[in-house]
Each structure stands twice: as structure tokens, then as C-alpha cells.
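Q: Sequence in, structure out?
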Amino acid sequence: MYKRQLLMMPPTISTLRSLAPYGRPDEVLAASGDRDLTPVLARARLVGEEIVLSWPGHDEFTKHIAHDITQHIASGPEGADA
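A: Exactly. Output:
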């Protein structure tokens, strides 16, 4: 399914994209004072029947996951004593 693809989390992709313009490590270090080092942190929220995972500032990574939350509310957490 993912033949010859390397799957990475959005923070890693974001970091590698920011490093791509540089040809050598010394160029990265020379420009390091100007780099934005804000962490890329995920945000999860429920929107209707979907779980939406997003990384603020990186809309291309947003994922919508269909989920019926009512089944978890009705049954409670797995392994919980009744």
C-alpha cells in the first residue's frame, strides 16, 4: 500500500521542509538564529461525528476520522467495572 514511502509525523515533515533549502549543515547553522522554532503540536477535537486532528499553521496535515462517539459514551471506558 505504501510502497517505497517513508511515513513521518507532521512535526518531522515540517522540520525537514524548513531545512530543505540549505545545501550543507554549516548553512543550516549559520541561518539558525533566524529560524522559527515554534513546536508543531497536534490538536484533537470532536466535530459532530468526526475526530479532527490538526496541526495549527499546517492545514495540509489535517485529518478527519469518522467516529461514533456515542458508542463510547454508552458503554464507558474499556475494562471499567460496572
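The chain has two domains: 1-37, 41-82.
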